[in-house]
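Reopening this ticket.

The earlier resolution said the output was attached, but the attachment link was broken on my side. Pasting everything inline this time so it's all in one place.
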Amino acid sequence: MMAKQWSNRFSFIISASAFAIGLGNIWRFPYITGESGGGAFLLVYLLLAAVIGLPILLIEMGLGRMSKSSPLTGFGRLTGKPKWNGIGWLGVAAGLLIKMYYVMILAWIAIYFLQSLSGTLTELQPAQLANHFDSVAGNSLNIFGAILVIVILAVLVVRKDLAKGLEPVARVLMTLLFGLILVLAIWSCTLDGTAEGLRFYLTPDFSKLSIDVFLSALGQLFFSVGVGMAAAFVFGSYTSANENLISSTIWIVLADTLIAILAGFMIFPALFTYGLSPDSGPNLIFITMGTFFNNMAAGRIFASLFFLLLFIAGFTSLISVMQGLKESLADRFGFKSDRALCLVASLVFLGSIPMVYSFAVNPIQIAGKTIYELFDFLTNSVMLPLSALMLILFGAYVIGFEKLVTALASNSKFKMSNYWSPVIKYLIPAFVFIIFLKAILP
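Inline output:
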């Protein structure tokens, strides 16, 4: 049985925030917002974060605290029936598969950061940027080298005790991340296109609201908050019975949402200043933003800061999930901590190999998708929503709403009133199920 605990409440909040805050906030949130019409999407996202994101994350952490174990054994311990541990296996598998391509994206970002520092990136002409991204992503030797360094750095952090590893690293990196994004957001809001960019970002155009906007916002919420990937369950298991779990989870979701909002303040004024498309999709940070940095004064400096910011956000999320995966394997199989961590690191590195080759000249395709595209679809559109759905149903029906609320309300001034009963039992499962169906049906 796991016996680790956070040093204090602040360490729990900042470390869990480091897990939640990742590339989903700074890379994915702006381009999904741009594709979904700006202000209308932002309004829907904020509403869903409060009504759906917060309860799901709270329930996952609450189940972790109740079980005092990992998701691979915790569901069985809560019920006395090991078959329920299948929910945990789904989450662990999703977290592991996501990090296999997540670490590849981190490698791209690390290379772009180094090229920004050297001036290579800002010397390129706008027309060269798309081909440049292809050349970076297609240079498998460089990518594997970067992945190896990143995985080793992650291992060096995660192998230490919480108080000497994840906690202090999260404090330092999260402080740096917040400082960087605040500086870049303030600077971006001094540009000529600020008024137009913020109008697009903050003014809801209700004519653009549709079921697809709601589904995009909910999908982004799962990607950003990171429910159902083992880490939140494990982090909850580290909390004591005296921890005010409800208010702590509120702070975590607020921090995650604040960084995403600041990312919009950083991106949209810049895009409208230089006449770039806000709906340019996943290429936003590598091609569109590259065009932006090439057109501005001091572009080399700001490009370096931007890619450093992205790397920090991604790395904190990586080490947090690796912590959760390590603890899960150690708890389930009785492995020593270092052995479990080496296994996780090896799986992440080996699993990244087919992801990298998905960007080769003639990549292997399955059902019309590269390995990367297939894993991205399976994890974000199928496994995470399904894991979140099973978590919420387990908490609401197997554990029971009353017992769950009593456990979550321990040492908390906040109470989950009866109002939350239909939300948790019916509303959230319905929304998540619709997302799941939309993903798997043609």
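Reporter confirms the inline version is readable. The CA atoms of residues 153 and 336 lie 20 Å apart. The mean pLDDT is 87.
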